[in-house]
Amino acid sequence: MNEKAIMALADENIMNTYKRFPIVLVKGLGQKVWDVEGKEYLDFVSGIAVCSLGHSHPQVVAAVKQQAEKLTHVSNLYYTEPQARLAKKLVDNSFADKVFFCNSGAEANEAAIKLARKYAHEYLGENKFELITMKDSFHGRTMATITATGQEKFQFGFTPLLEGFTYVPFNDLGALESAITEKTCGIMLEPIQGEGGVNIPEAQYLAAVREMCDRHNILLIADEVQTGMGRTGRLFAYEHSGIAPDIMTLAKALGNGFPVGAMLATNKIARAFSPGNHASTFGGNPLAMAAANATLDTIMQEGLLNVCRERGEYFLASLRKLQVRHKIIKEVRGMGLMIACALTIEGADIVNECLKKGLLINCTGGKTLRFVPPLIISQQDVNLAVAILDEVMEGK
User: Fold this and answer.
1) Which of 120, 208, 247, 391 has its CA 20 to 30 A from that of 240?
2) Which one of the listed residues 138, 154, 170, 236 is annotated catalytic?
3) What pLDDT is recorded for position 126?
4) pTM for the complete prediction?
5) Is 138 a catalytic residue?
Protein backbone atom coordinates (compact mmCIF):
# COMPACT_ATOMS: atom_id res chain seq x y z
CA MET A 1 0.00 0.00 0.00
CA ASN A 2 1.19 3.53 -0.69
CA GLU A 3 1.40 6.31 1.87
CA LYS A 4 -1.98 7.93 1.13
CA ALA A 5 -3.79 4.60 1.16
CA ILE A 6 -2.30 3.62 4.54
CA MET A 7 -3.18 6.96 6.11
CA ALA A 8 -6.72 6.81 4.72
CA LEU A 9 -7.18 3.27 6.03
CA ALA A 10 -5.96 4.33 9.48
CA ASP A 11 -8.16 7.44 9.60
CA GLU A 12 -11.19 5.39 8.64
CA ASN A 13 -10.72 2.69 11.26
CA ILE A 14 -8.69 4.06 14.19
CA MET A 15 -10.16 6.35 16.85
CA ASN A 16 -9.20 9.99 16.52
CA THR A 17 -7.03 10.25 19.65
CA TYR A 18 -3.74 11.30 18.03
CA LYS A 19 -2.71 14.23 15.87
CA ARG A 20 -0.37 12.38 13.52
CA PHE A 21 2.28 13.71 11.14
CA PRO A 22 1.57 12.85 7.48
CA ILE A 23 4.21 10.16 7.08
CA VAL A 24 4.09 6.36 7.38
CA LEU A 25 7.17 4.91 9.07
CA VAL A 26 8.07 1.36 8.13
CA LYS A 27 11.68 0.77 9.21
CA GLY A 28 14.16 1.88 11.85
CA LEU A 29 17.83 1.22 12.49
CA GLY A 30 19.90 2.96 15.12
CA GLN A 31 19.14 6.68 15.16
CA LYS A 32 17.35 6.63 11.78
CA VAL A 33 13.90 5.71 10.49
CA TRP A 34 12.48 5.43 6.97
CA ASP A 35 8.99 6.06 5.64
CA VAL A 36 7.04 3.96 3.17
CA GLU A 37 8.31 6.13 0.30
CA GLY A 38 11.93 5.42 1.28
CA LYS A 39 12.75 8.82 2.77
CA GLU A 40 15.27 8.78 5.64
CA TYR A 41 14.85 10.69 8.91
CA LEU A 42 17.17 11.41 11.84
CA ASP A 43 15.07 10.54 14.88
CA PHE A 44 15.41 12.92 17.84
CA VAL A 45 12.05 11.82 19.27
CA SER A 46 12.93 8.15 19.88
CA GLY A 47 9.31 7.16 20.31
CA ILE A 48 9.08 9.90 22.98
CA ALA A 49 12.20 8.93 24.94
CA VAL A 50 11.60 5.20 24.45
CA CYS A 51 14.20 3.88 22.01
CA SER A 52 17.28 4.89 23.98
CA LEU A 53 19.40 2.27 22.20
CA GLY A 54 18.00 3.32 18.86
CA HIS A 55 15.76 1.27 16.63
CA SER A 56 16.14 -2.48 16.16
CA HIS A 57 19.15 -2.73 18.43
CA PRO A 58 20.75 -6.12 17.69
CA GLN A 59 20.99 -7.24 21.33
CA VAL A 60 17.35 -6.42 22.03
CA VAL A 61 16.18 -8.01 18.78
CA ALA A 62 18.14 -11.18 19.50
CA ALA A 63 16.85 -11.40 23.07
CA VAL A 64 13.20 -11.03 22.04
CA LYS A 65 13.59 -13.49 19.17
CA GLN A 66 15.23 -16.11 21.38
CA GLN A 67 12.59 -15.70 24.08
CA ALA A 68 9.71 -15.86 21.56
CA GLU A 69 11.00 -19.23 20.43
CA LYS A 70 10.88 -20.55 24.01
CA LEU A 71 8.01 -18.97 25.97
CA THR A 72 5.87 -15.89 25.36
CA HIS A 73 3.31 -15.87 28.17
CA VAL A 74 2.16 -17.94 31.15
CA SER A 75 0.78 -15.23 33.52
CA ASN A 76 1.98 -14.38 37.00
CA LEU A 77 0.50 -17.56 38.42
CA TYR A 78 3.95 -19.02 37.78
CA TYR A 79 7.59 -18.00 38.17
CA THR A 80 9.71 -17.19 35.10
CA GLU A 81 13.46 -16.72 34.95
CA PRO A 82 13.59 -13.52 32.79
CA GLN A 83 11.35 -11.73 35.30
CA ALA A 84 13.43 -12.83 38.28
CA ARG A 85 16.66 -11.75 36.58
CA LEU A 86 15.37 -8.30 35.64
CA ALA A 87 13.97 -7.68 39.11
CA LYS A 88 17.37 -8.53 40.61
CA LYS A 89 19.17 -6.14 38.23
CA LEU A 90 16.79 -3.27 39.00
CA VAL A 91 17.10 -3.83 42.74
CA ASP A 92 20.90 -4.08 42.55
CA ASN A 93 21.15 -0.82 40.62
CA SER A 94 18.67 1.28 42.59
CA PHE A 95 17.47 2.18 46.09
CA ALA A 96 14.68 -0.39 45.90
CA ASP A 97 14.15 -3.84 47.40
CA LYS A 98 11.09 -5.00 45.46
CA VAL A 99 9.64 -4.58 41.94
CA PHE A 100 6.15 -4.82 40.45
CA PHE A 101 6.02 -5.28 36.67
CA CYS A 102 3.34 -3.88 34.38
CA ASN A 103 3.02 -2.67 30.79
CA SER A 104 3.29 1.13 30.69
CA GLY A 105 4.14 4.28 32.58
CA ALA A 106 0.50 4.98 33.38
CA GLU A 107 0.14 1.50 34.87
CA ALA A 108 3.34 1.94 36.87
CA ASN A 109 2.08 5.25 38.28
CA GLU A 110 -1.34 3.75 38.98
CA ALA A 111 0.41 1.00 40.95
CA ALA A 112 2.47 3.60 42.84
CA ILE A 113 -0.65 5.55 43.81
CA LYS A 114 -2.34 2.37 45.03
CA LEU A 115 0.72 1.26 46.99
CA ALA A 116 1.08 4.69 48.63
CA ARG A 117 -2.55 4.67 49.72
CA LYS A 118 -2.41 1.05 50.87
CA TYR A 119 0.75 1.70 52.90
CA ALA A 120 -0.79 4.81 54.45
CA HIS A 121 -3.98 2.92 55.28
CA GLU A 122 -2.04 0.10 56.93
CA TYR A 123 0.70 2.02 58.72
CA LEU A 124 -0.03 5.76 58.84
CA GLY A 125 -3.75 5.96 59.51
CA GLU A 126 -6.93 5.62 57.47
CA ASN A 127 -7.33 9.37 57.10
CA LYS A 128 -3.98 9.78 55.27
CA PHE A 129 -4.76 9.24 51.59
CA GLU A 130 -3.99 12.50 49.76
CA LEU A 131 -1.10 12.96 47.35
CA ILE A 132 0.52 16.26 46.43
CA THR A 133 1.63 16.48 42.80
CA MET A 134 3.10 19.28 40.70
CA LYS A 135 1.53 21.74 38.30
CA ASP A 136 2.67 21.07 34.71
CA SER A 137 3.35 17.43 35.59
CA PHE A 138 2.32 14.42 33.52
CA HIS A 139 1.70 10.99 35.03
CA GLY A 140 -0.47 9.12 32.52
CA ARG A 141 -3.92 8.69 30.99
CA THR A 142 -5.82 6.48 33.44
CA MET A 143 -8.39 8.15 35.68
CA ALA A 144 -6.02 8.15 38.65
CA THR A 145 -3.00 9.34 36.68
CA ILE A 146 -4.79 12.15 34.82
CA THR A 147 -6.01 13.27 38.24
CA ALA A 148 -2.41 13.19 39.45
CA THR A 149 -1.35 15.15 36.35
CA GLY A 150 -1.25 18.86 37.11
CA GLN A 151 -2.50 20.05 33.72
CA GLU A 152 -6.19 20.79 33.16
CA LYS A 153 -6.00 20.13 29.41
CA PHE A 154 -5.54 16.41 30.09
CA GLN A 155 -8.44 16.35 32.57
CA PHE A 156 -11.01 18.28 30.54
CA GLY A 157 -14.14 16.26 29.85
CA PHE A 158 -13.32 13.48 32.31
CA THR A 159 -14.71 14.89 35.55
CA PRO A 160 -15.43 14.04 38.28
CA LEU A 161 -11.81 13.22 38.97
CA LEU A 162 -10.50 10.95 41.69
CA GLU A 163 -10.59 12.44 45.18
CA GLY A 164 -7.41 13.15 47.09
CA PHE A 165 -4.97 15.13 44.93
CA THR A 166 -3.51 18.59 45.52
CA TYR A 167 -1.31 20.53 43.07
CA VAL A 168 1.52 22.96 43.80
CA PRO A 169 4.03 24.72 41.53
CA PHE A 170 7.11 22.68 40.67
CA ASN A 171 10.33 23.87 42.32
CA ASP A 172 8.44 25.85 44.98
CA LEU A 173 9.33 24.46 48.41
CA GLY A 174 7.24 27.00 50.29
CA ALA A 175 4.07 26.08 48.40
CA LEU A 176 4.80 22.39 48.91
CA GLU A 177 5.30 22.76 52.65
CA SER A 178 2.08 24.76 52.95
CA ALA A 179 0.10 22.09 51.07
CA ILE A 180 0.94 19.27 53.49
CA THR A 181 -1.95 18.46 55.84
CA GLU A 182 -2.89 15.68 58.24
CA LYS A 183 -4.44 13.87 55.25
CA THR A 184 -1.25 13.87 53.13
CA CYS A 185 0.31 10.46 52.55
CA GLY A 186 2.90 11.39 49.94
CA ILE A 187 4.43 13.67 47.34
CA MET A 188 4.59 12.50 43.72
CA LEU A 189 6.83 14.24 41.21
CA GLU A 190 9.03 13.89 38.15
CA PRO A 191 12.69 14.72 38.93
CA ILE A 192 12.60 16.62 35.63
CA GLN A 193 9.22 17.41 34.09
CA GLY A 194 9.11 15.98 30.58
CA GLU A 195 5.72 16.69 29.03
CA GLY A 196 5.62 19.94 30.97
CA GLY A 197 8.59 21.24 28.95
CA VAL A 198 11.79 19.68 30.35
CA ASN A 199 11.53 21.74 33.53
CA ILE A 200 14.59 21.24 35.74
CA PRO A 201 14.38 22.14 39.44
CA GLU A 202 17.06 23.89 41.45
CA ALA A 203 19.96 21.69 42.52
CA GLN A 204 18.82 21.19 46.14
CA TYR A 205 15.10 20.85 45.41
CA LEU A 206 14.80 17.06 45.54
CA ALA A 207 16.96 16.85 48.66
CA ALA A 208 14.72 19.40 50.35
CA VAL A 209 11.59 17.49 49.29
CA ARG A 210 13.12 14.30 50.70
CA GLU A 211 13.80 16.04 54.03
CA MET A 212 10.24 17.37 54.06
CA CYS A 213 8.82 13.88 53.51
CA ASP A 214 10.97 12.46 56.32
CA ARG A 215 9.96 15.24 58.69
CA HIS A 216 6.24 14.75 58.02
CA ASN A 217 6.46 10.93 57.79
CA ILE A 218 5.05 10.83 54.25
CA LEU A 219 6.20 9.09 51.08
CA LEU A 220 8.27 10.40 48.18
CA ILE A 221 7.25 8.94 44.81
CA ALA A 222 9.60 9.59 41.88
CA ASP A 223 7.99 9.27 38.45
CA GLU A 224 11.01 8.31 36.35
CA VAL A 225 9.00 7.04 33.39
CA GLN A 226 10.79 9.52 31.12
CA THR A 227 13.93 10.34 33.11
CA GLY A 228 14.86 6.77 34.02
CA MET A 229 17.10 4.27 32.23
CA GLY A 230 19.95 6.67 31.55
CA ARG A 231 18.13 9.55 29.89
CA THR A 232 19.75 12.19 32.16
CA GLY A 233 23.24 10.68 32.23
CA ARG A 234 22.62 8.62 35.36
CA LEU A 235 20.64 5.39 35.35
CA PHE A 236 17.96 7.17 37.40
CA ALA A 237 17.56 10.93 37.72
CA TYR A 238 17.12 10.89 41.49
CA GLU A 239 20.82 9.93 41.72
CA HIS A 240 21.84 13.47 40.72
CA SER A 241 20.42 14.74 44.03
CA GLY A 242 22.07 12.19 46.29
CA ILE A 243 18.73 11.05 47.73
CA ALA A 244 16.44 8.06 47.33
CA PRO A 245 12.66 8.00 46.92
CA ASP A 246 10.38 5.52 48.65
CA ILE A 247 8.69 4.50 45.38
CA MET A 248 9.86 4.89 41.78
CA THR A 249 8.15 4.24 38.47
CA LEU A 250 9.76 3.26 35.17
CA ALA A 251 8.58 2.51 31.63
CA LYS A 252 9.43 4.06 28.23
CA ALA A 253 13.12 3.18 27.71
CA LEU A 254 12.99 0.14 29.99
CA GLY A 255 12.22 -2.16 27.05
CA ASN A 256 13.67 0.00 24.24
CA GLY A 257 10.33 -0.07 22.44
CA PHE A 258 8.80 -3.22 23.88
CA PRO A 259 5.88 -2.20 26.16
CA VAL A 260 6.98 -2.66 29.76
CA GLY A 261 6.67 -0.75 33.01
CA ALA A 262 7.84 -1.21 36.58
CA MET A 263 7.07 0.16 40.02
CA LEU A 264 9.89 -0.15 42.57
CA ALA A 265 9.80 0.34 46.33
CA THR A 266 11.68 -0.32 49.54
CA ASN A 267 10.78 -3.34 51.64
CA LYS A 268 9.20 -1.04 54.21
CA ILE A 269 6.69 0.27 51.68
CA ALA A 270 6.28 -2.86 49.53
CA ARG A 271 5.09 -4.90 52.53
CA ALA A 272 1.73 -3.12 52.24
CA PHE A 273 0.93 -5.17 49.12
CA SER A 274 -0.15 -8.78 49.53
CA PRO A 275 -1.54 -11.30 47.00
CA GLY A 276 -4.75 -9.95 45.48
CA ASN A 277 -4.04 -6.26 46.20
CA HIS A 278 -2.74 -5.53 42.71
CA ALA A 279 -2.02 -7.46 39.53
CA SER A 280 -1.39 -7.31 35.78
CA THR A 281 -2.13 -10.10 33.31
CA PHE A 282 0.68 -9.19 30.95
CA GLY A 283 2.96 -7.49 33.49
CA GLY A 284 6.41 -9.04 33.46
CA ASN A 285 5.69 -11.39 30.59
CA PRO A 286 8.79 -13.19 29.27
CA LEU A 287 9.05 -11.20 26.00
CA ALA A 288 8.99 -7.85 27.78
CA MET A 289 11.47 -9.10 30.37
CA ALA A 290 13.84 -10.34 27.65
CA ALA A 291 13.76 -6.92 25.97
CA ALA A 292 14.30 -5.09 29.25
CA ASN A 293 17.13 -7.37 30.40
CA ALA A 294 18.94 -6.79 27.10
CA THR A 295 18.32 -3.04 27.27
CA LEU A 296 19.63 -2.63 30.81
CA ASP A 297 22.64 -4.87 30.13
CA THR A 298 23.55 -2.87 27.03
CA ILE A 299 23.25 0.50 28.77
CA MET A 300 25.51 -0.64 31.60
CA GLN A 301 28.02 -2.70 29.63
CA GLU A 302 28.58 -0.24 26.77
CA GLY A 303 29.13 2.81 28.95
CA LEU A 304 26.14 4.68 27.55
CA LEU A 305 25.65 6.75 30.68
CA ASN A 306 28.98 8.46 30.01
CA VAL A 307 28.11 8.81 26.33
CA CYS A 308 24.79 10.41 27.29
CA ARG A 309 26.48 12.98 29.50
CA GLU A 310 29.12 13.84 26.90
CA ARG A 311 26.71 14.09 23.96
CA GLY A 312 24.25 16.01 26.09
CA GLU A 313 26.82 18.62 27.04
CA TYR A 314 27.88 18.98 23.41
CA PHE A 315 24.25 19.27 22.24
CA LEU A 316 23.45 21.90 24.88
CA ALA A 317 26.52 23.93 23.92
CA SER A 318 25.58 23.70 20.23
CA LEU A 319 22.02 24.84 20.89
CA ARG A 320 23.24 27.76 22.99
CA LYS A 321 25.37 28.88 20.06
CA LEU A 322 22.22 28.64 17.95
CA GLN A 323 20.42 30.77 20.53
CA VAL A 324 22.84 33.63 19.86
CA ARG A 325 21.91 33.48 16.15
CA HIS A 326 18.15 33.16 16.56
CA LYS A 327 16.25 35.45 18.91
CA ILE A 328 13.21 33.15 18.86
CA ILE A 329 15.12 30.84 21.22
CA LYS A 330 14.34 32.15 24.69
CA GLU A 331 16.11 29.46 26.70
CA VAL A 332 18.05 26.24 26.26
CA ARG A 333 17.86 23.76 29.12
CA GLY A 334 18.39 20.09 29.74
CA MET A 335 20.26 17.31 31.44
CA GLY A 336 21.93 14.43 29.63
CA LEU A 337 19.96 13.85 26.45
CA MET A 338 16.70 15.30 27.73
CA ILE A 339 16.90 18.76 26.22
CA ALA A 340 14.56 21.62 25.34
CA CYS A 341 14.52 24.92 23.50
CA ALA A 342 11.94 27.33 24.89
CA LEU A 343 10.76 29.62 22.09
CA THR A 344 9.11 33.03 21.88
CA ILE A 345 6.81 31.69 19.13
CA GLU A 346 4.69 28.59 18.60
CA GLY A 347 6.87 25.62 17.72
CA ALA A 348 4.57 23.59 15.44
CA ASP A 349 5.82 25.16 12.20
CA ILE A 350 9.44 24.50 13.15
CA VAL A 351 8.64 20.86 13.91
CA ASN A 352 6.89 20.48 10.54
CA GLU A 353 9.69 22.14 8.59
CA CYS A 354 12.29 19.97 10.32
CA LEU A 355 10.20 16.94 9.32
CA LYS A 356 10.36 17.99 5.68
CA LYS A 357 14.15 18.25 5.97
CA GLY A 358 14.50 14.80 7.52
CA LEU A 359 14.69 15.59 11.26
CA LEU A 360 12.11 14.30 13.72
CA ILE A 361 11.58 16.47 16.82
CA ASN A 362 8.49 17.38 18.79
CA CYS A 363 6.96 20.34 20.57
CA THR A 364 5.41 20.27 24.02
CA GLY A 365 3.39 22.98 25.69
CA GLY A 366 3.07 24.91 22.44
CA LYS A 367 6.38 26.77 22.56
CA THR A 368 8.97 24.24 23.74
CA LEU A 369 10.96 22.08 21.34
CA ARG A 370 11.90 18.80 23.01
CA PHE A 371 14.87 16.66 21.99
CA VAL A 372 15.18 13.11 23.34
CA PRO A 373 17.43 11.31 20.83
CA PRO A 374 18.81 7.82 21.35
CA LEU A 375 21.73 7.60 23.77
CA ILE A 376 23.78 6.20 20.89
CA ILE A 377 23.76 9.42 18.84
CA SER A 378 27.09 10.70 17.58
CA GLN A 379 28.53 14.20 17.52
CA GLN A 380 27.91 14.13 13.77
CA ASP A 381 24.21 13.42 14.42
CA VAL A 382 24.03 16.41 16.75
CA ASN A 383 25.75 18.62 14.19
CA LEU A 384 23.27 17.59 11.50
CA ALA A 385 20.27 18.22 13.75
CA VAL A 386 21.56 21.65 14.76
CA ALA A 387 22.29 22.54 11.13
CA ILE A 388 18.71 21.68 10.15
CA LEU A 389 17.33 23.71 13.06
CA ASP A 390 19.56 26.64 12.05
CA GLU A 391 18.23 26.53 8.51
CA VAL A 392 14.60 26.21 9.59
CA MET A 393 14.84 29.07 12.11
CA GLU A 394 16.47 31.47 9.64
CA GLY A 395 14.28 34.53 9.26
CA LYS A 396 11.75 33.60 11.95
Assistant:
1) 120
2) 138
3) 84
4) 0.97
5) yes
